[in-house]
Amino acid sequence: MHFEKGTISSASFLQLLESIPVATLLVNRNGEIRFANSEAESLLGYEPKTLIDNSIETVIPERFLTKHRHYVSSYFDTPAKRKMGFGQTLYATRKDGKEIPVEIGLNPFDLEGNDSVIVSLVDLSVRQEATRILINSVALAPYGVLLIGQNGNILHVNEALCKSFGYIESELIGMSVESLLPERYRPHHKSLRASYSQTPIMRTMGEGRDLTALHKDGREFPVEIGLSPIDVGPEDRIILVSLTDITKRTRLEMALKETNKNLEEFTYVASHDLRSPLRGISDLLTWIQEDIDLDANPEVAKNLNRIAIRIDKMEQLIANLLTYARAGRASTTLEEVNIRHLIEEVIDFIDVPTSFDIECIAESVTLSLILTPLETILRNLLSNAIKHHDKESGRIQVSCELEGNFCIFKVKDDGPGIPASAMKRIFNLFQTATASERGGTGIGLSVSRRLAEVHGANLSVTSNQPDEGVTFELRWPRFVRKDTHDLKA
Q: What is the DSSP string of 15-82?
């Protein structure tokens, strides 16, 4: 920078430097500070005008002085406007001895025949602290994170990412991000990365598509990726990539799909291939009973009745299996449900012996819930409490209270209880508490737990020790969740 004599006075020029909102020094060839604006004095902790005539080395950390003297001499040999120490972290020393990270710009200036340089200093303390917080956050993240420079090279990774890919940190730093992709995706990814750099926004990557990464051992694995641009300077930007290895989840989803597919096939077979021949056998049995004289053949009549009973049991078994299979489908219809009214209606629906006392403990509060499966579970639990009671009279308490995100329903009875050995298997298909249970098919609790689980609820049972009986607890979600209720279905 050069001003012709007469175009601007020294006083005007220094006034111009004072008006710059960035810490600025004017230093001559001898390294003497000829001017410091108020921003520089404030940044370096000096009183007004006390920096002037000091050596520039006053504000340079001692460990850098030797190199700095060489740089000053060479700079005035070929002066040019440029940043100092590009790519390095530079520091200045405050009057109190504290070092601060700075970005330094140099601009040569000829002031009335004297070689000088305008030195601008930008305090990077806040930016450096933000970077430190970012690095710590990345390190502590429970999922893989990598920081990528504008050239696509990896600048930083956390331990979770190293574990996902099988590399150590030093192997990944400086590596191209394309190296973490299967070979067939690399050329296209480069163009995608170039396109993203033109309009960088925070978003998920490849939404709706299966994304695949490449492990160090050559195996591919499914991932979910999020992109977040971070500006680290006026002209510099890095991309924070969050990456989650979803291998386990994908396996579970595939297993669940296979299970549901098998269940649907079973439902079809049970509905058509098993029921139809069973009905045919039942019709044949009826015709035989009509064609023969049963009074003259009592033994034959007895056996035919046994066949009829077994056919009925087989039909009931198929019906129960279909009920269990269908319980795996989540209902999606929300209804306004008054909790107390719901319990009272369930009690009214059941044929309760007059010798039984049923108590309802619940507030008259209305919630938006999926009613049908909830009603079915409560009806099953209450029916079981009556059906499996070992006395002519009994006392059952049905209650509900709101706790956090759940409605806690409890059905407490004073019946015979459940043996400790049967507690774990009581919810299994076709399992009963005891072999001598009256009328138990072992399907009700299985269906109830299945209905609970597909709707994000939990059903459990505990003994009332030291009192008699058991308490079933149903934790039913108060709020609709996307992972358990697909309202579009």
A: HHHHH-SSEEEEEETTSBEEEE-HHHHHHHT--TTSSTTSBGGGGS-GGGHHHHHHHHHHHHHS---E
Q: Is the pLDDT of residue 430 over 70?
A: no
466: preceding bond cis by omega (within 30 degrees): yes
Nearest to 40 by CA among 160, 120, 99: 120
Neighbours of 5 (CB within 10 A): 8
Q: What is the pLDDT of residues 314-364, one digit of tens each?
A: 887 777 777 777 776 667 778 899 999 999 999 988 888 999 999 999 999
What is the tens place of the pLDDT at every residue in 81-119?
988 876 677 999 999 999 999 999 999 988 777 888 999
- Torsion sign (Cα): 267, 272, 278, 282: positive
Quick one: pLDDT band at residue 139, thresholds 50, 70, 90? confident
Query: Please, are residues 38 and 53 in contact by the beta-carbon 8 Å criterion?
Result: no
**Calculated CA dihedral for residues 178, 183, 187, 189, nearest 10 degrees:** -50
* Nearest partner of 440 among 457, 428, 452, judged by Cα: 428
Structure token digits, residue 385: 């409490």
**Residues 330, 453: Cα–Cα separation, whole Å:** 9
* 154: CB partners within 8 A, 6+ apart: 146, 147, 148, 172, 173, 174, 175, 176, 177
- The tokens describing 125, both together, are 């303390």
Residue pair 215/166 in contact (Cβ under 8 Å)? The answer is yes
- For the segment 208-219, what is each residue's pLDDT rounded down to a tens digit? 788 999 999 999
Give residue 312's Cα distance to chain centre. Answer: 49
pTM of the model: 0.55
Q: How far apart are CA 408 and CA 444, in angstroms?
A: 20
Instruction: Quote the tokens at residue 308.
Output: 């009829």
Look at residue 313 in the predicted model and tell me its pLDDT: 79
- 3-class DSSP state for residue 102? strand
pLDDT for the residue numbered 483: 64
Query: Strand (E) positions, 310-420?
Result: 335-338, 356-361, 366-369, 394-403, 406-413
Quick one: which of 230, 219, 205, 246 has its CA closest to 130?
230
Convert the pLDDT of each residue in 223-273 to its tens digit.
999 999 988 766 678 899 999 999 998 899 888 888 878 877 777 777 777
Q: Are 41 and 59 in contact (CB under 8 A)?
A: no
pLDDT of 2 = 47
